[in-house]
Amino acid sequence: MPLIDRAARAFLSRHRVARLATADRDGIPHVVPFCFALVGERLYFVVDAKPKRRGGMALKRMRNIAANPAVAVVADDYDEDWSALAFVLLRGTAAVVADARERAQALRALRRRYPQYRAMALDGPEHPVVAITPSHVHQWRALTSRDAAPPSARRAGAPRRPSSRRR
After folding, report:
1. Whole-angstrom Cα distance, residue 97 to residue 159?
2. How many Cβ atoms sit within 10 Å of the Cβ of residue 8?
3. Are strands 42-46 and 37-39 parallel, antiparallel or unpaired?
4. N or C: which end of the chain has fewer CB within 10 A?
5. pLDDT in tens, 39-96
């Protein structure tokens, strides 16, 4: 069974932005919004050409990944109606993609997902591509009265309670 199941994959595909948490070698956290593409069992992102004070490997998230590859990613639904809250949390490891074929595949997926990337030149070391390989996936959504009903009362295919999968 895949670590990122169909429900988590669908949830992630509906979200244009997620949050990436990294930490430096001392464990000091750093969280930023980021654009991503899911290819197979990995999430990819690229240090893109948007203006930045520092670029490429000098970015804080990239320095953190070099020092401590453990990362977390969260995509969430927030609503004032708290019965509509939901999130997917992935924990895993991040690494700069060195393989040219994998890098090209990741950039194709990112460009399909984000038209803005189609106009950006993303080749070269100033635009590293990073692969996040999850080791844990957790899905959660608020319980509704229907969820509290016994399983026999649920509609076929109705979402279940929060779940976790570990590799």
Report:
1. 35
2. 22
3. antiparallel
4. N
5. 999 999 999 766 556 666 678 999 999 999 999 999 999 999 999 999 999 999 999 9
Instruction: Encode burial over 33-46: b for 16+ CB neighbours within 10 A, e otherwise.
Output: ebbbbbeebbbbbb
**Is there a contact between 49 and 120 (Cβ–Cβ < 8 Å)?**
yes
Other beta carbons less than 10 A from residue 120's beta carbon: 16
Chain center to CA of 91: 9
CB count, 10 Å around CB of 101? 8
Closest to 21 measured CA to CA, from 112, 128, 94, 96: 94
Calpha distance 44→46 (Å, rounded): 7
Q: Give Cβ neighbours of residue 146 (< 8 Å, ≥ 6 apart).
A: 154, 158
3-state secondary structure 14-83: HCCCEEEEEECCCCCEEEEEECCEEECCEEEEECCCCCCCCCHHHCHHHHHHHHCCEEEEEEEECCCCHH
157 — pLDDT class (breaks 50, 70, 90): very low
Q: Which two tokens stand for residue 159?
A: 């979402």
Look at residue 160 and tell me whether its pLDDT is greater than 70. Answer: no
The pTM (predicted TM-score) of the whole model is 0.83
